Amino acid sequence: MAVSTAAAADTSVASKSGESGESGKSGKSSKYDTGEATCPYRLVLEHVTSRWGVLVLIELLDRSYRFSELRRAIGRVSEKMLTQTLQTLERDGLVHRDAKPVIPPRVDYSLTDLGREAAEQVRGLALWTSERMTDVEKARRTYDEARAVRARAS
Asked: pLDDT-derived band of residue 39, with 50, 70 and 90 as boundaries?
């Protein structure tokens, strides 16, 4: 999930030079096309909406956590993935890492103002998903049944 400095620099240069790597043959681009598949906009969106990014942001809305507490609260995340997710969100300015100079070392993670704003948005989407899951499941069944009928007819 971490982004290399070289990739970020390449993206920055391409954006400034006006290259349109994904605009296609027509020369038209969508409102989401910023020139590169790995543009900063898309990378931040990927970080915020990643499997673990969403859960970290939502969990940190309630309070700050120590690493092990956060890992337990999220569940089923490896130490490596949680570390990478926290580092990425910290680099994006969404998570604050507070390392206290005590023995044993104590590190707390909390949301920045920017992170709180992003987490509220993500939580809204998570709540909508929870509320509308019955409709999604119904749509899936309808789709699967129609596809099965088409497959038998072929």
From this structure: confident
- Closest Cα partner for 122 from 41, 61, 68, 40? 61
DSSP string, 53-80: HHHHHHHHHH--EEHHHHHHHH-S--HH
What gap in Å lies between CA 123 and CA 57, rounded to an integer?
Answer: 8
**Cα–Cα distances in angstroms (integers) from residue 77 to residues 52, 85, 98, 110, in the given order:** 8, 10, 21, 18
Model pLDDT, residue 33: 60
For 121, the token pair is: 């948005």
Give bridge partners of residue 107 from the DSSP assignment. 99
Sheet with 95-100: strands ordered across? 65-66, 106-111, 95-100
- φ/ψ (deg, to 5) at 111: -90, 145
